[in-house]
Amino acid sequence: MLYNIDIEKSVLASLMSIDDLLVISDVSLVAEDFYSNRHQIIYHAIQSLHSQNQPYDSLFVADYLTDHNQLDAAGGVEYLTDILTNSPATSFDFVSYVNRLRSLYVRRQAQKILKNGLDSLINADISTDSALDITTQSIVTLQNRNSQNQKITYAADFMPEIVAEIQARRENNIKPYLQTSFI
């Protein structure tokens, strides 16, 4: 099976339950990483709220979906409630769950590419070389996208370096920030 609905629900529950999880973790998820269409819609709402610097808990997500006439397509308030009550919201397993979603997405895409390549070879609409070239290029593009998005980093992993740099600047009387009229 090339999807796991329970993992998708857990990722969404974690995002809607744990404050600033998109900020804390450097996730490179996109809506299409989710197999379920309603999960894609919910994640798109979370992304949109996050990009507008708004909270993305379940109430804000429900409001966003309502405002954009997508609440029913996302399963309604009942489905959002079901996700939150029946799926584990965890920052501990979040990275593993996201990595699994990415892996499943890549497998689904690879399967689609290979099926299209096979169809091209069977139908003989294009030359064999062209069919193989298109299939190979598509697989390489998918592989490159996957390798660029594999690493998820927590802010806590690089914060000590930033704090150390700020302290060093302060000790050397170098302002560690931009001077504004508010200081």
UniProtKB/TrEMBL annotation:
Q: Which SUPFAM superfamilies match?
A: N-terminal domain of DnaB helicase
Q: What is this protein called?
A: DNA helicase DnaB-like N-terminal domain-containing protein
Q: Where is the DNA helicase DnaB-like N-terminal domain?
A: 2-102
Which terms in the Gene Ontology molecular function aspect does this entry carry? ATP binding; DNA binding; DNA helicase activity
PANTHER family on file: REPLICATIVE DNA HELICASE, REPLICATIVE DNA HELICASE DNAB
Domain of life, per lineage: Bacteria
One Gene Ontology BP term is:
DNA replication, synthesis of primer
Q: Report the GO terms under cellular component.
A: cytosol; primosome complex
